[in-house]
Automatic annotation (TrEMBL):
Name of the molecule in the record: Intraflagellar transport protein 88 homolog
Gene Ontology BP annotations: inner ear receptor cell stereocilium organization; intraciliary transport; kidney development; non-motile cilium assembly; regulation of cilium assembly
GO molecular function: kinesin binding
Species the sequence originates in: Suricata suricatta (Meerkat)
TPR repeat feature ranges: 233-266, 272-305, 456-489, 490-523, 524-557, 558-591, 592-625
Record's keyword terms, sorted: Cell projection, Cilium, Cilium biogenesis/degradation, Cytoplasm, Cytoskeleton, Flagellum, Repeat, TPR repeat
Function: Positively regulates primary cilium biogenesis. Also involved in autophagy since it is required for trafficking of ATG16L and the expansion of the autophagic compartment.
Subunit structure, as described in the record: Component of the IFT complex B, at least composed of IFT20, IFT22, IFT25, IFT27, IFT46, IFT52, TRAF3IP1/IFT54, IFT57, IFT74, IFT80, IFT81, and IFT88. Interacts with IFT20, IFT22, IFT25, IFT27, IFT52, TRAF3IP1, IFT74, IFT80 and IFT81. Interacts with IFT172. Interacts with IFT57. Interacts with IFT46. Interacts with IFT70B. Interacts with C2CD3. Interacts with ENTR1 (via N-terminus). Interacts with LRRC56. Interacts with DZIP1. Interacts with CCDC38. Interacts with CCDC146. Interacts with CFAP53.
Length: 796
């Protein structure tokens, strides 16, 4: 090979093409595997490369290498140091290059290129968890302790104090075992102090709840004296509460003050509550001067109704009338933080609170308040505001759901001036419309319109009454007039869209709802109406797009989700349809249409086992419909569980002994399995089929007899014959319809496709200060509730 290499002489400097055929033997890689010197260099030089030094020859440990090509020509690198594998001064430098990543000569000989080593097969399986190891036992025991603490708290919240205490004690025992095991395996620094704290705190709380105060105090002492628990001093508040219950007031005050000293000043609210407890304790001990100091401090820092009231009582006890007046002024200066209209509306379902509100909302003070307020307004220059106050009073009655009082208050304005009369008549029309008394609603709507023709609310209510009577064209005129008087009347615009929808003027209805959407961007009712109109216009893509906007506003609306699933199903996209049907089922698992679709979907996809749970739920919702129970048995049979299917069919036969379909499957299954009951079920099946045939013949003969008597009455002419034929054909059609209906002995086979509507259909434009409601709207809203701890740190 080397005979083809021609090196140009160094003296030939005039040749322009000199050097093009020069060949550096260092780059010859064909026979490197047979080059023993090169292989020895690779084995010895990797990982022991000398540092790079510029222009200093022979920096690496070299040795003479005899290669198969003889001596090589030395080539210097651009940095001045010898190149790898080159010869300098008769000594060859070791080769340090190995090979390019992922490239070997074997790849050129037919092997696959595999830089990632995928041909080596899958990774070995993970090492199985050793459940007998000490660490795993500790982990499981710690999990059990946490579960016991949670169960204790749940039992306490449910009122089962005895069970809560038992769970807390068991958690304490297991936690001590856990600590001992952890000390044997690991160092004491790895003990879970948070778990120990929660176990002890829960145990002390349950002792206190069960009125075992001595045990509770001992447990709290264990926590407080342990310096490893941070902020444990705050629990002295609980210890003070226990001493207060035991009427040991001196110790209660002592522990309250100790807790107050350990709470930083940044926690103002907690410090104020402790001061409140200290003041109450001083009152119980008769130390009114000390109690006054506590309540005065509270009123100066964070005034509250309770502190102000207690301060007045303390001044009354010491007989200081001047200080009582000042304290009362401070008390009435405390903001109630309750709306004037809502202060007599119960915010909760607490029966005690409801009794208090019922007692004070019409007491003498409340009556005097109303009378003086109205009298003062009537005697002033703002006499017109008195009428508005009466209107607001009627609205307040509506908020309190006292419709009779609201109606009586509004009827007082029938003889007032036109503006007030129109407002009162509008609200009366609205109330009667809600009660479906459309005649009274129409009468008061006319009164409101006649009193003030430019009242858009009155015109909208009049349109509602006309709409309820089915005169949609006339209703649209009233809505248009309301919009001409007030273009911002969204109720009239919404109702005119519904009217056009009823009149099948879909383009005009769509324009109305698109205008309304520009005003009310996130109205779920408007979004649904737009989607529904596009569906009626046979534009499913637009309908889907608007429904997607709807579920972005109300993501938990099961009706909207099922409608999306229905549209995707009609388009043939089963996967998307399944996704939305399943979401609808997750939020509202009692929709029989959604359940039926999901069960059928799993049957179509050959997952009959998954369909069983849906048909079982359907059978719970409609226990008298044998169809769902037959579908459950059918799913067992399709999945190959013949014994379970047989038991299900037997149970159905006990509940519905005259069901022919169930008996047919029983006969078939018993025959396939080879059971002796096959003869019994076959006999019952024949008897039922014969009874069914006799019943059908009787129905048919009765119709034929009535047709014959009618033909005899009408005569025997050709025309009569034609009439008989017509009657006979009508009888056959009726018979066909009767046969199509499910009999009492047959499973229910049909399911009607009802229109899904998440918004109200009747136009209801509320004309009082009240949000627009929906009759069929299913929109879930988040309910927020304050969580309560197992033990109140700061009781009132």
């Amino acid at each position: 090979m080397m005979q083809n290499v021609h090196l140009a002489p160094e003296t030939d400097e005039d040749d322009l093409y000199s050097g093009y055929n020069d060949y550096n033997p260092t780059y010859d890689t064909e026979e490197l595997e047979n080059d023993t010197a090169f292989q020895q260099a690779v084995r010895t030089s990797h990982g022991r490369r000398p540092p790079i030094t510029a222009k200093i020859p022979s920096t690496a440990v070299t040795r003479p290498i005899a290669t198969g090509y003889g001596s090589k020509t030395s080539l210097a690198s651009s940095m001045g140091r010898p190149m790898t594998g080159a010869i300098q001064d008769g000594v060859t430098r070791p080769m340090t290059a190995v090979r390019a990543a992922g490239f070997t000569k074997a790849a050129l000989r037919g092997s696959a290129f595999d830089p990632l080593g995928q041909s080596r097969g899958p990774a070995p399986p993970l090492e199985a968890k050793n459940e007998d190891s000490p660490e795993e036992k500790i982990r499981q025991l710690e999990k059990k302790v946490n579960e016991l603490v949670e169960e204790s708290c749940i039992a306490n919240s449910c009122g089962d104090l005895k069970l809560a205490l038992e769970k807390a004690k068991e958690a304490g025992r297991k936690e001590r075992i856990l600590v001992r095991q952890r000390e044997q395996v690991t160092t004491p620094e790895n003990i879970n102090l948070d778990l120990t704290y929660s176990v002890l705190f829960n145990l002390a709380s349950q002792y206190s709840a069960n009125e075992m105060y001595a045990e509770a105090l001992n447990t709290y002492q264990v926590i407080v004296k342990n310096k490893m628990f941070s902020n444990a001093g705050r629990l002295k508040v609980n210890m003070g509460n226990i001493y207060l219950k035991q009427r040991n007031y001196s110790k209660a005050i002592k522990f309250y003050r100790m807790a107050l000293d350990q709470i930083p000043s940044v926690h103002k609210e907690m410090r104020i509550k402790i001061m409140q407890n200290i003041g109450v304790t001083f009152i119980k001990t008769g130390q009114y001067s000390d109690a006054i100091n506590s309540f005065e401090h509270i009123m100066s820092m964070a005034p509250s109704l309770k502190a102000g009231f207690n301060l007045i009582l303390s001044y009354f006890a010491v007989g200081d009338q001047d200080k009582m007046k000042k304290a009362f002024q401070k008390l009435i200066a405390v903001p109630l933080e309750v709306d004037e209209d809502d202060k007599y509306i119960s915010p909760t379902d607490d029966p005690h609170t409801n009794l208090v509100i019922e007692a004070i909302k019409n007491d003498h003070l409340r009556q005097m308040e109303r009378e003086r307020c109205v009298e003062v307004v009537k005697a002033s220059q703002y006499v017109e505001l008195a009428n508005d106050l009466e209107i607001n009073k009627a609205i307040t009655y509506l908020r309190q759901k006292d419709f009779n009082q609201a109606v009586e208050t509004l009827k007082m304005f029938e003889k007032k001036d036109s503006r007030v009369k129109s407002a009162a008549a509008t609200n009366l029309s609205f109330l009667y419309y809600l009660e479906n008394e459309f005649a009274q609603a129409s009468s008061y709507a006319d009164l409101a319109v006649n009193s003030d023709r430019y009242n858009p609310s009155a015109l909208t209510n009049k349109g509602n009454t006309v709409f309820a009577n089915g005169d949609y064209e006339k209703a649209a005129e009233f809505y248009k007039e309301a919009l001409r008087n007030d273009s911002s009347c969204t109720e009239a615009l919404y109702n005119i869209g519904l009217t056009y929808k009823r009149l099948n003027r879909l383009d005009e209805a769509l324009d109305c709802f698109l205008k309304l959407h520009a005003i009310l961007r996130n109205s779920a009712q408007v979004l649904y109406q737009i989607a529904n109109i596009y569906e009626l216009m046979e534009d499913p893509n637009q309908a889907i797009e608007w429904l997607m906007q709807l579920i972005s506003v109300v993501p938990t609306d099961s009706r909207a989700l099922s409608k999306l699933g229905e549209l995707y199903d009609n388009e043939g996209d089963k996967s998307q349809a399944f996704q939305y049907y399943y979401e609808s089922y997750r939020y509202f698992p009692s929709n029989i249409e959604v359940i039926e679709w999901l069960g059928a979907y799993y049957i179509d996809t050959q997952f009959c086992e998954k369909a069983i749970q849906y048909f079982e739920r359907a059978s719970l919702i409609q226990p008298t419909q044998v169809k769902w129970q037959l579908m459950v048995a059918s799913c067992f049979r399709r999945s190959g569980n013949y014994q379970k299917a047989l038991d299900t069919y037997k149970d159905i036969h006990r509940k519905f002994p005259e069901n022919v379909e169930c008996l047919r499957f029983l006969v078939r299954l018993c025959t396939d399995i080879g059971l002796k009951e096959v003869q019994e079920y076959a006999t019952k099946l024949k008897r039922l089929e014969k009874m069914k045939e006799i019943r059908e013949q009787r129905i048919k003969s009765g119709r034929d007899g009535s047709g014959g008597s009618r033909s005899r009455r009408e005569g025997s002419t050709g025309s009569d014959s034609g009439q008989n034929c017509s009657a006979s054909s009508r009888g056959e059609r009726l018979s066909a319809r009767l046969r199509a209906l499910p009999g009492t002995n047959e499973p229910y086979e049909s399911s009607s496709n009802k229109e899904i509507d998440v918004s109200y259909v009747d136009p209801l434009g509320p004309q009082i200060e009240r949000p627009k409601t929906a009759a069929k709207k299913r929109i879930d809203e988040d309910d927020f509730a304050d969580e309560e701890l197992g033990d109140d740190l700061l009781p009132e």
